[in-house]
Predict the structure.
Amino acid sequence: MAVQVILSQQGGLPLKATFNSEGDQPVILEVNGSVWTELPNYMIGILIQIDGQSVGQAQIFSNTPETHRAVVPAYIQLQLGFGQHTIELYPLSFTLSDSNDLYTAVIHY
């Protein structure tokens, strides 16, 4: 199985990257990262968009405030066509990020 890293970057959110799809077969998009919140007891995370369309979220429940937390990785099945595409990562409600947060997005062919 081939793997293509399409984003590997330090935060904060939002982040945007362009990439070229290596095929038109079904793929799995994997997104990882870390986020934090100022408030206790909230679901926080990353909204994932491909070509301007929301395709999923990577989330974590944060019991304590002001602690950077790794989200549970998101695995999203996509059907991309050949050519250039855009990935964008946005913070969910109550979610913060800064230069201490890291993000990775990988396509598994």
Observations:
- The CA atoms of residues 26 and 79 lie 5 Å apart.
